[in-house]
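Researcher: Sequence of Aminoglycoside phosphotransferase domain-containing protein follows. Predict its structure.
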Amino acid sequence: MLIVSLDEKQVEITPIEYDADCPFKYNNFVYRAALTSPTIANSGASNETKQQPGCAMIPEGVTQFIVRLPNPDAEGMNTSNRVENEVAIISLASAALAHLEQKVVPSVYGWGSAAGASPQGWILQELMPGTPVDAGFRTMDLQQKKAIFAQMAEILDALQKYQLPQTITGFGGLTFDQSGNTVSATMTSVDAGPWPSYEASFQGRLKVAIAEADKSPIIRGWRNNGVRERIDAFVESGLPAQFLSLASKQDKCVVHADFTTNNMLYDPKSQRITALLDYDFACISHPSYEFFRSFNGCGGQFGGWPGDEDNDLLALQDYKLHGFPSPLPLSSNTDGVKWEDMKAWEDELERVQVQRPRTTQGIEKAADVDAVLQMIIPWRITNPDILRLQPEESTMKCRDENEEQLVKMLDHLGF
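Model: Prediction complete. Tokens:
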């Protein structure tokens, strides 16, 4: 804990979930800032801060805040509009979820861009109440999990149905124009975009991934064994066909892209979700993209073709598309699919009538494109921190295994 003085007030600054010995780079440094005396009306905002887009006034009597400092060294993150994107998404999510009985989106009180003279951006935001959902999720019984799933479905439904401002015209990230309007911009987790369509977003991201693979001394652009030619052929002529059957392909909405239990807080007594946090990877995309990136461990992501050897994942994908059987199957091992949880999540999505895999014709083809994207630059052989810690023998084994999976996927796609 650090104690500093600010405007005649002492501020206690405490890191949240920070380990100085962690071998991996944090995407953000998050701190709790506690004042020794509460704020008074208008004391926490200058005239300049009041005019900042995406900001709310600091309420009177507040003593604690959250300070988020995006790590400029975080792998693959674009800093030019990283803070602006997060603030803009929070503003949209707050409006989309304003009707909920429990406020779940933190207010932003001020922010600084990393695109200016200083490379360090920052966000000052509301400290939300509650306990991390993932701290108790594994030990919850099915009824308790259903209560969480029901609220998650309502949040997701509201994000999908929220009418975006007309100034947001593309797929990707967000920023603010000189008039304070929220406008389309670079997708911060990719450093590319915005794009005019969902298909174009994947095409653009695949080109970025291929360029990164070319730079890797381990992957070497997947040029061994003729794999690169097959990738190029798929991107050039196969990708457009994958989106022909995707229903409502021009639909776009707020996508959190990390909507999981570790980014939610709740009240254990009431079982009410009290916060949805961390919009660092959030973007504007097709509703299906949320299912590709979120719900891992609490409902299950919807992935691309998992290969003909993974029977549980093949079955799960089929059930998400066509409905779950009764009785539910037994998991093939103790770490396998938790079928009751998966069914409970789908039941809540159906109850609220969320746009989901079963109601999105052609989603499986888009999921296959996303799978190819992730296979081109797999984390285990591209992240500099893990490469530093992992023996070269293990790295090369991972590379060979990934190439085998990539080849199987290309075979599956007919390339």
